[in-house]
Amino acid sequence: MPIALPPIARREFIKSSLALGGSAMIAARRLDAAENLTPKLDQSRVALLADTHISDDPNLAYPGTKWPGSPVSEDEHESVNMAQSLAKVVEEVIALNPRPANLIINGDCTHSRGTEAEYRELIKILEPIRLVGITVHVTIGNHDNRNNLWSLLPFLKKEQLGIQASVIELPHANFILLDSGKRGSLGESQLNWLAKQLDTRADKPALVFGHYNPFPNRGIRPIRGMSDGQSLLKILTKRKHARAYLYGHTHEWQHHQKEQLHLVNQPAVSYYFGKGHAHGWLDMKLTKAFADLKLQCKDRAHQQHGDRRKIILKD
Asked: Which CATH number fits domain 3-312: 3.40.50.960, 3.40.50.300, 3.30.1360.20, 3.60.21.10?
């Protein structure tokens, strides 16, 4: 089952802050600030993040535009501080009214290979989200290590087939969270599990989340799709109540459609691969008829800030 970080109580927060190296005074201040904000939680609003790539060094900035074959010249690479980017998203989500009841990070939570130190930094940054009652869900990407995550937070360990795969039931749709792991594949067992979940929940639209792109990237950086991506798409397009597959990995905001199925490539919260590309998160609002996605760029002046996509949930 995908890791879910539940809301956190005052005593629990101060205790965990001390354990992670914080102070009771700082913890109390942050808690008081959070409690002064009282918007309601909306079960039909979801904050969608991907590729946060948090390092164990909160000051680390990474040049995402620097990759083999990049068209960006050596002296024009653009770097992004990952911790600051996620912290800004946290502030923006908390400022919403109403607030989303759930927040999903769709893989690659950490920068290297999912060390415990990286997950500790991630948890610190996400603490204000939990303090205001928002539940955090995490899928596994190629930069994650589910065993380290489970070791650090054993009380949150929920296995399905030995991996993280589960369903979030919301009023207007079911979210199915998959585990594409380090090798960019789902595997026959997980694909069978997905088909079963879809078939037993055919009374409600389904939106499926996995970290990897199901086909070769159509954006700026050539990235292979998952090895069993075609099998995934066959399962989803065959079931007409499956309305979207949302993925990260390519660090680029893209949208395609295959029959009734919307293929939504989430932007990275952290660094991007193309010079001047958007990075940020998606604000999703669900109704019985559709899911509305709004791109929230870190740079509010970016030409794509506020870009919208609508996923029809029922014909």
From this structure: 3.60.21.10
Positive/negative CA dihedral, 117, 122, 128, 130:
negative
Cα atoms in the 13 Å half-sphere on the side-chain side of 36: 6
pLDDT of the residue at 315: 83
Per residue in 248-258, pLDDT (tens digit) is 999 999 999 99
Q: What is the pLDDT of residue 111?
A: 97
Dihedral over Cα of 81, 255, 101, 119: its sign: negative
Domain ranges of the chain: 3-312
pLDDT given for residue 247 in this prediction: 98
Q: Which of 238, 54, 206 is nearest to 141 (CA)?
A: 54
Closest Cα partner for 241 from 189, 185, 200, 287? 200
Q: Contact at 8 Å (CB) between 204 and 242?
A: no
1: confidence class by pLDDT, cuts 50, 70, 90 = very low
pTM value is: 0.89
Longest CA span, the chain: 55
| Residue 110 per-residue DSSP state | B
